[in-house]
Amino acid sequence: MAGLLASRDTRVLLVKGNLIQALPPDDHGRARVAYLTPPEPLPEGVGLYLGSSGGLDYVGLVVDGGDLEGPSQDVDWVSLREVGGHLGERDVAVVASATALAVWHGEARFCPSCGAPTRVVHAGWVRRCTAEAKELFPRMDPAVIVAVTDHADRLLLARAQHFGPGRYSVLAGFVDAGESLEAAVRREVGEEVGLELGRVSYLGSQSWPFPRSLMCAFEAQARGTDLTLDTEELAEAHWFTRAEFAAAIADGSVHVAPRSAIARSQIERWYGRALDLP
Ligand SMILES: [Zn+2]
């Protein structure tokens, strides 16, 4: 790590919890990660080796809060949620790993079995208990996110209780211990809106380090259309035709997830084209 942090071929990303430093999107909507290049001075921090690409090594440096100066005044601390939709694929992967690891390091300072302090080994990918040989690995929590349609190909969108007014999304929930992803999809949809599902198909996945989810995306067809809401979780849920959805987006009564979120691509997949929104 010391060698990497001294090499001109290393790009260093400062990480603070799930925030990284980036330059805001330019006029073309492209954002840039604000990498530091040795021998630029670097703050103290836990080094995370994030991989190499195009002859360069990428390293995350987990720093404590404080008022750290960025490489220039234009730099903001931002999350993957804000900036992910404006970054290229390599930078999304770098930022997702860096922030997922940084959040984990913040929570894994003590051994869960004996309570002794842990220390960082293996370039930031393992912590070892200082009292026993036990090694701790970063973990992710699997969650399912499902675009449910009915026999007429209407999409179900719901507003969670913790969402602001007008903010809708597809249904999502964490996978229970001992459960398969498919079973989690059927259980969540049953619990949240009372629908039984027919076909359930896997679409893809996304690391979502808020704080450590692995979002597994599905689409499914409901057997009925009558909704029975779990009102502790959901404020409302409605079926949308494409015309109704387009009108609701246009008049601002419905807002959806940012481009960086997999929910957005599920909604656009159903809609048939990308939305002209951030
Ligand atoms: Zn221990």
Commentary on this structure:
By secondary structure, this protein is of the alpha+beta class. The protein contains five helices and 15 strands. The model has no long low-confidence stretch (mean pLDDT 93). The structure holds zinc ion. Zinc ion (ZN) is lined by residues 111, 113-114, 116, 129, 131-132, 134. Zinc ion binds at residues 111, 113-114, 116, 129, 131-132, 134.
Quick overview of this protein structure:
Strand 13 (197-208) and strand 14 (213-222) form a beta hairpin.
Overall mean pLDDT score?
A: 93
Strand content: 25-35%
**What is the level-2 CATH architecture name of the largest domain?**
Alpha-Beta Complex
The count of domains is 2
User: What is the CATH third-level topology name of the largest domain?
Assistant: Nucleoside Triphosphate Pyrophosphohydrolase
Largest sheet: 6 strands, mixed
The best one-word shape is globular
- How many distinct helices? 5
Which structural class is indicated by helix and strand composition?
alpha+beta
Rg measurement, Å: 21 Å
What series of H and E elements makes up the topology? Answer: EEEEEEHHEEEEEEHEEEHH
Distinct small molecules bound, one entry per kind: zinc ion
CATH superfamily of the largest domain: Nucleoside Triphosphate Pyrophosphohydrolase
**C-alpha termini separation:** 37 Å
